[in-house]
Amino acid sequence: MGFASHLGPWLLGTVKNTSGTTAGTIRNMGNTIVSQSVAILYTDITAGTTAFTIPAGSQILSASFNTTVAYATTTPTYALLVNGTAINTAANGSVFTNTGIVNLLLGNNNAAGAVLCANVGTGDAIITFTQANVTATSGAGILTMTYVVRDSDGNANPSQV
Q1: What are phi and psi of 142, to 5 degrees?
Q2: How many CB atoms lie within 10 A of CB 67?
Q3: Are 130 and 49 in contact, with CB atoms under 8 Å apart?
């Protein structure tokens, strides 16, 4: 399998411009959803470790942690930051002592984080994570973030009005 790169957002749909008022004549194009993943070990405890860089203007849709090797402690906390600003309430506790996928709650009780999830800003966003209170001797997983690539001002192109 190969990889391809494309600069700028991809729009998919069958009607680019509205030319009527019925289905099939109304613009139906939308931006594609993309993701990045990174492996995390229980030893990755340096605060502000870079996980991803995502394009300017992107809208963050979700983040999840798939625990593939259970943590040997019930106390780790996990936080995500966009350019140093927290975008989630730190996930913690026993969710890491079992294998499986945990969806990280984004923008919860955090107005600045919610704004950043809607639009990461006019420059590329560095996504970091902080994994704290890890007293484990084992634990690993995959952090995945999904997002929509948009123009650097956060708008879809052409604009969706």
Answers
A1: -120, 120
A2: 19
A3: yes
